[in-house]
């Protein structure tokens, strides 16, 4: 076979181009620390690297989910510890004051402390974490428990005219019922109507003597009457009178202090391909005993004790004492549930951390360059390229091309 000068030259050029490409690839590996810088470098390894990256990213998301759930459970546990302490104190007061040697004055004074306990429990039940109510079920933007009793009327159309035929109102405020006569007149706005109702109700002698008062507002198209008191007996209820229809108070909604406005949903967080964990306790379960065998309404129990002490009702105190004992057991059971959930989260977190270590190791083996070897190969490839160039230079000197210059 005849080998021409052109064939030799093209062969040498081809070798130098391939060697330069190999040198460039090695330079990229040394500079980036990666064995695969583009899919064409090694399609199989590139696919493996992408799979490992997906595994690591997914594990990180699961760990973030668990971190969020752990914070919810930790805050919930802290709240339950406080609730437990408040219930223990309420139980102590009930045991102390149910004794027949106590006077009505003693019990009235005890009722004041129980009222403070009730308010503290409602505040705990409305705990906010990371901008969300943790005991509201899915309704995390809704304040779950009413702290001041109120009555929400139905829609009415203004102006409203009050006269002899519709100016009567019987209303119960914090357990004290009275009948008032509204001021006759034409009320062009909802605000004017609300101001009149509030003024008349709060001027009532029976309510003033009992220390009861309300705040009346007009919300868009309906009246809202709110007790100015807190505690377990805070409630408002219009019960009779010729003005009920005109004021939209005939078929409204009463919400006494302690009423639950959330839902019963449990919030699940994804911690694996087919694995979820529950991070919340719905408020109706924890504070009202919904779904708990033999459960009791904790706020009703404390409110019942307050009412029984205020009215010197011995039977009511005994009932409250029994309910408070059940309530303490109920909270203890929910704390145990939270502890079990937290243990499950910790175990899943440890498993995911181990998975990340293994995946990162395999990803490194597939995608990271062995720097010592890469530098050695780079030097070797540089030497080969240099040798090829020198050989090409010598061949060029002895070829006809030199004489044709």
Briefly, what CATH class of the largest domain?
Mainly Alpha
User: How many discrete structural domains?
Assistant: 2
Supply the number of helical segments: 11
**Structural class category:** alpha+beta
Rounded to an integer, what's the Rg over CA atoms?
39 Å
Distance between the termini: 28 Å
Question: How do the strands and helices of this protein lay out in sequence?
Answer:
Blueprint: H1 5-32, H2 43-97, H3 104-125, E1 128-129, E2 132-133, E3 150-152, E4 160-162, E5 168-173, E6 176-181, E7 185-187, H4 190-202, H5 205-210, E8 214-219, E9 222-227, E10 236-240, H6 244-247, E11 253-255, E12 268-272, E13 275-278, H7 283-288, H8 298-310, H9 314-367, H10 371-397, H11 400-403
Antiparallel strand pairs: 1-2, 3-9, 3-11, 4-7, 5-6, 5-10, 8-9, 12-13
Index terms:
405 residues, alpha+beta, f41 fragment of flagellin, N-terminal domain, Immunoglobulin-like, four-stranded antiparallel sheet, three-stranded antiparallel sheet, 11 helices, 13 strands, 13% strand, elongated
Short précis:
The protein is an alpha+beta fold and 405 residues long.
Textual characterization of the structure:
The chain is elongated, with a radius of gyration of 39 Å. The protein folds into 2 domains: 34-143 and 262-368, f41 fragment of flagellin, N-terminal domain (Up-down Bundle), CATH 1.20.1330.10; 148-257, Immunoglobulin-like (Sandwich). The strands form 5 sheets. The chain has a 4-stranded antiparallel sheet with strand order 8-9-3-11. It has a 3-stranded antiparallel sheet with strand order 6-5-10. It is 57% helix and 13% strand. The chain has helices spanning 5-32, 43-97, 104-125, 190-202, 205-210, 244-247, 283-288, 298-310, 314-367, 371-397, 400-403, and strands spanning 128-129, 132-133, 150-152, 160-162, 168-173, 176-181, 185-187, 214-219, 222-227, 236-240, 253-255, 268-272, 275-278. The chain contains 11 helices and 13 strands. The model has no long low-confidence stretch (mean pLDDT 87). It is of the alpha+beta class and 405 residues long. α1 (5-32) runs antiparallel to α10 (371-397) and α2 packs antiparallel against α3.
């Amino acid at each position: 076979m005849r080998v021409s000068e052109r064939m030799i030259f093209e062969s040498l050029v081809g070798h130098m181009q391939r060697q330069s490409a190999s040198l460039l690839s090695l330079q990229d590996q040394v500079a980036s620390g990666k064995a695969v810088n583009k899919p064409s470098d090694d399609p199989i390894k590139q696919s493996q690297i992408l799979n490992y990256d997906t595994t690591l990213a997914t594990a990180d998301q699961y760990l973030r989910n668990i971190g969020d759930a752990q914070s919810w459970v930790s805050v919930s546990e802290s709240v339950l510890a406080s609730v437990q302490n408040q219930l223990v104190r309420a139980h102590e007061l009930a045991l102390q004051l149910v004794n027949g040697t106590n006077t009505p004055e003693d019990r009235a004074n005890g009722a004041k402390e129980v009222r403070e306990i009730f308010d503290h429990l409602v505040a705990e039940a409305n705990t906010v974490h990371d901008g969300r109510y943790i005991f509201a079920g899915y309704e995390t933007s809704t304040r779950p428990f009413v702290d001041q009793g109120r009555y929400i009327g139905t829609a009415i159309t203004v102006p409203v005219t009050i006269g002899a035929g519709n100016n009567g109102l019987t209303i119960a405020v914090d357990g004290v019922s009275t009948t008032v006569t509204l001021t006759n007149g034409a009320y062009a706005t909802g605000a004017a109507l609300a101001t009149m109702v509030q003024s008349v109700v709060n001027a009532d002698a029976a309510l003033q003597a009992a220390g009861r008062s309300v705040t009346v507002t007009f919300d868009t198209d309906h009246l809202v009457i709110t007790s100015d008191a807190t505690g377990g007996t805070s409630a408002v209820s219009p019960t009779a009178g010729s003005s009920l229809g005109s004021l939209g108070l005939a078929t409204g909604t009463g919400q006494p202090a302690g009423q639950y406005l959330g839902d019963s949903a449990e919030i699940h967080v994804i911690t694996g391909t087919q694995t979820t964990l529950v991070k919340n306790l719905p408020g109706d379960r924890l504070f009202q005993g919904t779904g708990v065998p033999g459960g009791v309404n904790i706020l009703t129990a404390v409110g019942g004790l307050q009412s029984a002490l205020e009215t010197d009702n011995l039977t009511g105190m005994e009932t409250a004492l029994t309910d408070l004992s059940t309530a303490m057991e109920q909270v203890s059971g929910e704390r145990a549930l939270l502890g079990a959930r937290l243990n499950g989260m910790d175990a899943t977190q440890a498993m995911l951390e181990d998975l990340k270590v293994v995946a990162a190791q395999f990803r490194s083996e597939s995608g990271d360059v062995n720097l010592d070897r890469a530098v050695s190969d780079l030097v070797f490839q540089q030497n080969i390229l240099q040798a090829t160039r020198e050989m090409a230079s010598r061949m060029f000197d002895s070829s006809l091309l030199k004489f044709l210059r």
